[in-house]
Design a protein that fits this description.
The protein has 559 residues and is of the alpha+beta class. The protein contains 17 helices and 20 strands.
Length: 559
């Protein structure tokens, strides 16, 4: 229960752009104004929360999040900012927190300079929120105009890529970084000589060459503990590929590869390459055009652009099948023997090879044709289900989600509980009247109120629990309805296609083969079991399945 004393958290915010306006908006000035106000009005400041260098366009700010967490402790009953713009400039969200969230949380919110008081009627508030939003949009427009002009001139307006640093004499241009430029040149040299991105990554790791993220953490950027913890000494082949594709190493300034999804979003979306802003010959190149072209050529060959080859075997399981042991993707591969390919086509864990940076000693392997038959069999089982069978599956799923082996719909109890709460409220009102007329004394009133309030709170919690449980069950039922509405579109699946797989399946995990005692290798007619977990779209995993195999797949599950 919150105290009647005036206990406040204060919140201070300043964006990088606003810092250019001078002292008037500074953190120091905001603090001074709020402290003086609190001193004049008998308000105790409990804690101060600051976001220095954060835009008011959204509320994903560390200081503001910490403020919200502190409010939940019940230690304060007020939040104070210098003005509404300090809370945020996003009209919808700022209005929500000031006029809805804080009052509903029992928090008295004040914005001093704007005369905003959440406990009063604020006639001008809609206009104040709107003007702050207009300021945000106008600032964004001006910044975009400046950046656009700089990009057109070939000025580098972003963090320097690995291998370069900002020129100390001209911050808009790049110069080679003596610590990292040799690593970039080494990458292109190896790639131009036919080495794959994966080989280069392993080579760089073995040679102890610093990774781009670790270099930023140690020598360039200011990372928090969480960000710094992601730094590693192990090179990733995707990082190598990203470097090999970047034309900045040819001496060109390449800008405008991405843009914000919207003015109020942090998410960035990719821009088509033909719309990039490329200014040639703006800085010292680290590689020649010949090296860049050769690296690109070999990268295409080494990454197996199968569409360029005649009659390739294309796996329909790409991006769906993973090793149960290590979580690594399972890739398609195999050989041709006596003119047969299908018989020797497998899906194998990508981390089985000893050269893998994350070697998996229990890596999964399964025949491509066997997995095809299993998935086809399982999907056709769904197609063959009757309506009663489907209802039973949904009921079982609800029982699992509600942790109730004898689940029944309890939502019809809610009106009964609400009626009891209403009755309690009437009793409480009568008790106050009886106390006022002298029929019961203050002590009796207090005792009975305490008992009734306790019962009322207990009933409200039960109602919340029932509603939450019902919402969860309704969600599960809706998910199953969607899934089985897709199933109804098929009468039988004779051939699996990528479209069918992605319609019904989200993920498949393959376990290691389990051989009979005394056997080391699954060959000839040696039977074995293999755990295959199928996660369906919308409904998740129905059950864990162990499948029995001999040399040819048997269409039955292990007992």
């Amino acid at each position: 229960m919150r105290t009647a004393a005036k206990l406040a958290d204060i919140y201070l915010r300043l964006s990088v752009e606003e810092a250019k306006n001078g002292e008037s908006e500074s953190i120091k000035n905001q603090r001074s104004i709020i402290q003086q106000y609190c001193s004049d009005n008998g308000i105790t400041i409990v804690r101060e929360f600051i976001d220095d260098g954060f835009s008011g366009s959204n509320f994903e700010r560390p200081g503001f999040k910490s403020l919200l967490d502190h409010i939940k402790t019940g230690l304060v009953n007020m939040v104070i900012t210098k003005d509404l713009s300090r809370l945020g400039r996003n009209m919808a969200e700022a209005s929500y927190y000031a006029e809805t969230f804080f009052p509903e949380s029992g928090i008295h919110y004040l914005a001093i300079s704007d005369g905003f008081d959440s406990e009063e009627v604020n006639l001008m508030a809609p206009f104040q929120f709107a003007m702050n939003d207009v300021y945000l949009r106008d600032t964004s427009r001006k910044i975009k105009q400046v950046l656009s002009q700089k990009k057109k001139k070939g000025e580098y307006c972003a963090c320097p890529p690995f291998g370069y640093m900002k020129n100390p004499q001209d911050k808009t241009s790049l110069i080679p970084d003596p610590k990292t430029a040799p690593i970039v040149q080494k990458i292109f040299s190896l790639a131009a000589n036919g080495k794959s991105a994966r080989f280069i990554a392993i080579q760089l790791t073995n040679d102890g060459d610093i990774t781009p993220l670790k270099y930023r953490v140690l020598f360039r950027d200011d990372f928090g503990d969480k960000g710094a913890a992601r730094a590693t000494d192990v090179w990733c082949h995707t990082t190598v590929k990203r470097i090999l594709k970047n034309k900045v190493y040819l001496g060109h300034t390449v800008m405008g590869k991405t843009k914000k999804a919207s003015i109020k979003s942090k998410k960035k979306v990719l821009i088509d390459e033909e719309d990039w802003m490329i200014t040639k010959n703006t800085h010292t190149p680290l590689v020649s055009q010949e090296q860049f072209d050769k690296a690109e050529q070999f990268m295409g060959i080494n990454t197996r652009k199968w569409q360029d080859f005649e009659k390739p075997r294309k796996s329909i399981f790409n991006g769906l099948v993973y090793c149960e042991n290590c979580g690594g993707a399972m890739c398609s591969g195999g050989s041709v023997c006596n003119g047969e390919r299908e018989k020797y086509w497998y899906l194998s864990c990508i981390n089985i090879p000893n050269r893998s940076a994350k070697h998996c000693d229990k890596g999964a392997r399964i025949k491509y044709r066997d997995l095809e038959q299993i998935i086809k069999m399982e999907l056709n089982k769904f197609i063959d289900l009757s309506k009663d069978d489907i209802e039973s599956i949904i009921q079982a799923a609800i029982e699992v989600k509600s942790n109730d082996s004898t689940y029944v719909d309890k939502s019809d109890r809610i009106p009964e509980l609400e009626k009891r709460i209403e009755h309690i409220d009437q009793i409480i009102l009568k008790l106050y009247n009886d106390n006022a007329s002298g029929l019961i004394n203050d002590e009796q009133l207090s005792t009975m109120l305490q008992s009734l309030s306790k019962e009322s709170e207990s009933l409200k919690k039960k109602i919340d629990g029932l509603r939450s449980e019902q919402a969860k069950n309704d969600s599960a039922i809706d998910a199953y309805k969607v899934f089985f509405s897709l199933v109804e579109q098929y009468t039988h699946i004779d051939e699996l296609t990528p479209e069918i797989l992605r319609t019904f399946i989200e993920r498949i995990e393959i376990g290691k083969k389990e051989l009979p005692e005394g056997y080391q290798i699954a060959s000839h007619n040696v039977p074995y079991k293999q755990h295959i977990k199928i996660v369906y779209r919308f409904i998740g995993e129905i059950q864990n399945s162990d499948y029995s195999f001999t040399r040819e797949f048997e269409q039955k599950k292990a007992g």
